[in-house]
Every structure is written in structure tokens, then in C-alpha cells.
Amino acid sequence: MTIETKGGYCSSSPELEHWLARHIEQGFGAEALVRSMLRSGYDAAFARDTVAAALGLPMPPTAAAPMRTPMMAPASVGLSAVSAQQPAGSDVAQQPGGNAFRHLGHTIPILFALEAPRILLLQNLLTDAECDALVALSRGRLERSPVVNPDTGDENLIDARTSMGAMFQVGEHALIERIEARIAAVTGLPVEHGEGLQILNYKPGGEYQPHFDFFNPQRPGEARQLRVGGQRVATLVIYLNSPPAGGATAFPKLGLEVAPVKGNAVFFSYQLPDGGLDDRTLHAGLPVESGEKWIATKWLREHPYRSAI
């Protein structure tokens, strides 16, 4: 029997024990497990104690003393970022005019760069093994991808977006934590400015019609999103496989299409120097013509982001 207190549920069960064991085996950390239990209605102290016991930890995690410290990227904020100078000793390097980033021994060549709007195509941001691991991690979470209703702020399903998606909390898994640190190193925006990584799967015919990633503050539903980290300022789309045909990321106002190639990523920023938003970053996920497409999307905010959940 589950006991419910004023703070939430505080009794274990075989189902909870099985859930914990499965997610620990998959590599999820203490903080992510506690957050998931809180969202499911468990008492906070009970959730911390239960997770600590399952992990064999000497003391439960607390908000003031998190269980693990993620590898943080250099806090070089600003969307000149992709050519930002990094602190000495950070093992992040791109010399002015250089053709590649390097992070912890991982080399990421720049295949092309557009200045206005700022768009970069990055080769080998992720290894094949990292791409495959992200796909495997997301399969059990896939749900139809919603969009934010501009008038209400609610998430709705619409015909213009036909993908299936899985959302992950920042730093939820060791693999995601490593990838987020690499993203921060390349973009120059700290990990805390990123929304959770979203994994998307498009079947044949799947597409996302032209849209903007930034929020329109004049629409009440979208304005609500600005309260949890301010405006989105940039997007990174990582290709987790190479579809045989179709599935490019298109920028119709620029006449540009980026082919989906496994491990590559396209970065684009939409904040102008005067603080305005660049509508040339209108973009679309073109229909998949053959096979399927897997991508990971990272949205970056102007301020540290906190989940609206």
C-alpha cells in the first residue's frame, strides 16, 4: 500500500524498485531520478532517501549539495561565441580564423560558416557511437512532438510537425552530460543556458514545416516561455543518422539546405546585435523521402534556463 502524506507519496513498491533498477542500469544519475519521482508525486525526502539507498550512497542528495558535478564548459557567453576565446587550460581551442574546434581530445571541423545570420555546419560533433547511444536511450520515451500554442502557452499537436520525440533533463544521463559540455564549449554558451536535449524521429514523409524557434513576446502564450530563461537565442540540430533521401534542414529565406549526415550538426543564432530577432532563420525539416531521420535538438537561452515543470 502506498502512503500519501501532505508532501506526497512515501512508500516503496516492487514497481518503484524495478523502475529504479532499470534506470540506474541505463546510467541515470541521482538528481535525475529524484526529479522524476517528484514529478510522479513522491515526497521529496522519501525520494532522496530511496534514490540514495538504491545507489548505495552514504548520504542522500540535496538541492544544496548535488550528487555529482557535471563537467562545465567555459562560461564565455555571447553569440560571437562560435569564435569566442576560451580560458587558458580549458582544453577548448579554436584559433581566430581556425577551421576546427577541439574539446577534450575531440576534433570538430567547421564545414561552412555564414556570417549573417550566423550559421555553422560542424562535422563530427558526435561520434557514431554517441549517435547510436542517444537513439537507443530515447526509444522508450518517444511520444508525438507538440508545439507551443502562441495564444495559450500550452503544448499542442499540429499537422505541421509530424515527428516523435523524447525529452531529457539537462545532465540527466552521463552521455547527455558529456554532450552538453561539448555543446557549451563550441557555442560559448554555458550548460545552464540550454534547455533539455530533445531527440526526434521522423518516419518516411515526416516533416516540420517552416517555423521560428524563438518566441514572439507579443503572443501571450509564447510570452509565458520567456519567464524561464528569457528568449531563445540559438539552436543546434545534431544529425544522429544519415537518411538515404530527404530530411534536410532548409532555410527558405536564404536558399540554403543542410543535408542530414550522421554526427554533423548545424548551429544557427537568431539574436541580432541590437537585441532584435533575425527572421532569416526561418527553417524547416524537409520531408523524409526514404528511410527515417533521427536528430537531437538543443535550444539555447539568453539567461540560465529552468524547466517550467
Give a description of the structure.
Its cofactor is L-ascorbate. This is Prolyl 4-hydroxylase. Keywords: Dioxygenase, Iron, Metal-binding, Oxidoreductase, Vitamin C. Residues 193-302 form the Fe2OG dioxygenase domain. GO terms for molecular function: iron ion binding; L-ascorbic acid binding; procollagen-proline 4-dioxygenase activity. This protein has 309 residues and is of the alpha+beta class. It has two domains: 14-55; 100-301, q2cbj1_9rhob like domain (Jelly Rolls), CATH 2.60.120. 21% of the residues lie in helices and 25% in strands. The chain contains six helices and 20 strands. The chain has helices at residues 14-25, 30-39, 44-55, 128-138, 174-187, 220-225; strands at 4-5, 8-9, 92-93, 100-103, 106-114, 119-122, 143-144, 147-148, 155-156, 164-167, 198-202, 208-211, 232-239, 245-246, 249-251, 256-258, 265-269, 283-285, 288-290, 293-301. The chain has a ten-stranded antiparallel sheet with strand order 3-4-5-6-17-13-20-11-10-7, with helices on one face. It has a four-stranded antiparallel sheet with strand order 12-18-15-16, with no helix packed on it. β5 (106-114) and β6 form a beta hairpin. α2 packs antiparallel against α3 (44-55). The chain is globular and about 60 Å long.
Which structural class do you get from the secondary structure elements? Answer: alpha+beta
Q: Strand portion, in percent?
A: 25-35%
CATH class of the largest domain: Mainly Beta
Helical fraction: 10-25%
Question: Which stretches are low in confidence, meaning pLDDT under 50 for 5 or more residues running?
Answer: 60-90
Number of domains: 2
Per CATH, the superfamily of the largest domain is q2cbj1_9rhob like domain
* Neighbour order of strands in the largest sheet: 3-4-5-6-17-13-20-11-10-7
Order of helices and strands: EEHHHEEEEHEEEEHEEHEEEEEEEE
Whole-angstrom Rg: 20 Å
Largest sheet: 10 strands, antiparallel
Q: How many DSSP H or I helices?
A: 6
CATH architecture annotation name of the largest domain: Sandwich
> How does the overall form come out from the CA principal axes?
globular
Termini separation: 28 Å
Number of strands: 20
Mean pLDDT: 80
Keywords: Dioxygenase, Iron, Metal-binding, Oxidoreductase, Vitamin C
Protein name: Prolyl 4-hydroxylase
Domain Fe2OG dioxygenase: 193-302
Cofactor: L-ascorbate
